[in-house]
Specification:
Blueprint (H helix, E strand, L loop, with lengths): L4 E4 L12 E4 L12 H10 L3 E8 L5 E9 L4 E4 L1 H9 L4 E7 L4 E10 L4 E6 L21 E6 L7 E10 L8 E4 L10 E3 L5 E9 L6 E5 H8 L9 H24 L5 E4 L2 E4 L6 E6 L10 E9 L3 E4 L2 E3 L2 E10 L4 H9 L18 E9 L2 E11 L7 E9 L11 E13 L1 H13 L3
Parallel strand pairs: 1-2
Antiparallel strand pairs: 1-13, 2-13, 3-4, 3-6, 4-5, 5-8, 6-7, 7-8, 9-10, 9-12, 10-11, 11-14, 12-13, 13-14, 15-16, 17-18, 18-21, 19-20, 21-25, 22-23, 23-24, 24-25
Helix pairs in contact: 4-6
């Protein structure tokens, strides 16, 4: 399955993303390891340059989202996109504030965003504490090198986490570093530094399916963003337009890599189904463990692209998932097997809540794929924050092979596709490629 990511920005009681990783602003309970002498030195050197970035409600001035950031200029800071995304999406309801380690604070504004790599550049206003800005490292640390992540976890004060750099995550659509350390919720956007105190990565997420598996955005993406910041802050409307354009471009790239060519196939019993598309689409199979307790067997394969983006409170997008379920039986009658097969006609579930998308439009039809008949259902609904982007849910169930085959078995296959954000054209392409592989 995909890694359980939670982004490390913290939205009040929000636990973070609904998929496999948690933004560096969500809940966590793993304690930090004892500090080494190097960690103490780096922490003291870093204190004047560390920030907490808060999204406050305009009505009451109370904090709604908190994350971390770090100073890279006299009045410039870098953080994650998801730390400021709620303000961008609803600037009339929220305002941004920075807080230093000595509890000075002031208003802030967003200058630039990189949605695909979850980064933002923020300008600070007010009485900014004296500091020497962080330097961005020219090179990636060696694999196995001790490195340090800094931020403000769970609003409990600024902290440092010592861990190990493990290079780029393998087989990931996103370019991220694997950090073996306990990055916790609230540390989103904080710096990860080498032993010289230079920033080589930015905290972004942790894996909920493993221990001490965290993720960092490489600092070279921040350098590119800083090289192109405007002199005046864009309006919230302009930033929202940039969000829309960047997500659309990113998804077109992802879906193009997946569906531009015919999908590879493999066998699941007598059926031809979609298979892995290395290194993006990874699949896991499961054989039936309950065959002895019921009159049919069930085999399945699940495939996912680990490419979700945390876009704000209760909203993530970018994932692609495929599921195949085969049932077969030599004990059920034709009628009972038809009832079982009909129960497989179920659309894949989705993590996008109804409040973030429009009304779903669906169609249901019988189609011929090759020489066989399938029942296909497809649903699309528009994402509210993103113009001309849709969520796709698709199910296809075989209607043939209801009579016993040479081995005396009846067979049925249910295949499901879910894409959380795509243009109408790319959703249509994904549908066509997905169905082409089913035989």
């Amino acid at each position: 399955m995909s890694r359980l990511l939670i982004c490390l920005g913290f939205a009040m009681l929000l636990g973070g993303m609904a998929h496999a990783a948690e933004p560096a602003a969500g809940k966590a309970t793993t304690p930090s390891a004892p500090r080494s002498a190097d960690a103490e030195r780096i922490f003291e050197e870093s204190r004047p340059r560390l920030l907490q970035i808060r999204t406050l409600t305009r009505s009451g001035g109370s904090q709604y989202v908190i994350g971390s950031g770090f100073l890279v200029g006299s009045d410039l800071a870098v953080s994650n996109f998801h730390v400021v995304s709620e303000w961008i999406s609803a600037s009339t309801r929220y305002q941004l504030e920075w807080v230093s380690t000595d509890n000075q604070h002031g208003p802030a504004e967003v200058l630039a965003i990189d949605l695909a790599h979850d980064l933002s550049v923020i300008r600070l206003k007010g009485a900014i504490p004296a500091h020497t800005p962080y330097a961005l490292a020219a090179d990636e640390p060696r694999r196995g090198e001790r490195v340090f992540s800094l931020g403000r976890p769970l609003d409990l004060g600024f902290n440092i986490v010592e861990g190990t750099h493990n290079g780029l995550v393998e087989g990931d659509f996103r370019e991220q570093y694997h950090f073996s350390g306990a990055i916790n919720a609230g540390m989103s956007g904080g710096p990860a530094v080498n032993q010289a105190g230079e920033v080589f990565g930015i905290n972004v997420a942790r894996n909920l399916r493993g221990d001490l598996i965290s993720y960092l955005v490489p600092a070279h993406f921040a350098r590119t963003l800083l090289e192109n910041i405007p002199k005046t802050a864009p309006s919230a409307d302009a930033l929202r337009n940039a969000m829309n354009q960047q997500l659309a471009a990113r998804q077109k790239l992802l879906l193009g890599k997946l569906f531009a060519q015919a999908l590879p196939t493999r066998k699941l019993g007598p059926f031809s189904i979609n298979a892995e598309t290395p290194p993006l689409l990874k699949c896991w199979s499961q054989a039936d463990a309950q065959k002895a307790t019921r009159p049919y067997a069930r085999d399945s394969m699940n495939c996912e692209v680990d490419a979700d983006l945390f876009l704000g409170n209760n909203l993530s997008a970018g994932s692609v998932s495929i599921e195949h379920v085969r049932v077969h039986s030599n004990a059920l009658s034709r009628l009972r097997f038809a009832t079982l097969a009909s129960s497989l006609y179920e659309l894949p579930t989705t993590w996008i809540p109804a409040s973030q998308a429009g009304q779903e439009r669906c169609d249901d039809q019988f189609v011929r794929l090759g020489e066989h008949s399938w029942r296909v259902g497809r649903c699309l609904r528009a994402l509210r924050r993103f113009d001309k982007l849709y969520q796709l849910r698709l199910v296809a169930v075989s209607m043939d092979r209801r009579e016993p085959d040479a081995q005396g078995e009846r067979q049925a296959l249910s295949s499901r596709l879910s894409v959380t954000s795509a243009s109408f054209e790319d959703a249509s392409l994904a549908t066509r490629r997905f169905l082409e592989a089913l035989r």
